[in-house]
Amino acid sequence: MTLPTFDAPTQHPPITLSPIEARVLATLMEKARTVPDSYPLSLNTLMLGCNQKSSRDPLMNVTEAEIATALDTLMPLNLVRASSGSRVARYEHNFQRGVGVPEQSAVLLGLLILRGPQTAGELRLNAERWYRFADISSVEGFLEELQDRSGAKGGPLTVKLPRAPGAREQRWAHLLCGPVDLEAVATGSTPSTGGGAVAGLTERVAHLEAELAQLQQTVRALCTELGVSQPGQS
User: Fold this and answer.
1) Is residue 3 part of a domain?
2) Which structural domain, as residue segments, surrounds residue 53?
3) Across the chain, how many H-helices and E-strands are there?
């Protein structure tokens, strides 16, 4: 009697990237969704994306040589691939398959790499051009799955940070570059794009925008249920 055979589950070893490697990978992930007509990216375009001044925390100023070195590390890890059919070398990410996570989790990790620690509400807003999450609770669900990821799958990829003084919500951080320095986060000495005051104000604005979006959604649902016009409509 021949016994049936089953494929062994795919193993995903733990990944620890340098900050430049993580920035290169997340930039490829971002551009695949936001500028698909220009994707895959050339080395020069990838450098511009890594060094852009918007939607980046911390800001970086990496060279083409540093990016090329990062690509040489990422490709054997099956996280980046060089595309063929062009006179200029172009690169694309293979994050979901290389890390072994669903699309929603990949989006959240990419945003955390590019923009630094964020609340679930901020992540939902910042993900609009990448993926539309139904609500904040769905974002939290995927973050918690990444935090509880088993060792067989490579271990946790996110961590929920302690609540900052004066903050209403806790922020999340990624673990693709190793453990987070919680002491530095608590003292506010982590890198930021515009100083602690600006970073704090940005977080508060993002949180208020998230609350406003939730309230607008609730009002629309109530108006529909009651059969009345929404505020501002005749």
Assistant:
1) no
2) 19-98
3) 9, 5
Query: Residue 120 in 3-state DSSP?
Result: helix
pLDDT, tens only, 219-231: 676 667 677 676 6
User: pTM of the entire structure?
Assistant: 0.75
| Domain of residue 161, CATH code | 1.10.10.10
**Measured between alpha carbons, how far is 70 from 64 in angstroms, rounded to an integer?**
10
Q: How far apart are alpha carbons 55 and 41 in whole angstroms? A: 18
Same domain, 47 and 152: no
H/E run at residue 137: helix 136-147
For 78, the 3-state DSSP assignment is: coil
CB-CB contact of 47 with 63 (8 Å): yes
Tens of pLDDT, residue by residue over 2-53, are: 544 444 445 666 889 999 999 999 999 999 999 999 999 999 999 999 999 9
117 shares its domain with 205: yes
Distance CA(132)–CA(130), nearest Å, equals 7
* DSSP helix/strand/coil, 159: strand
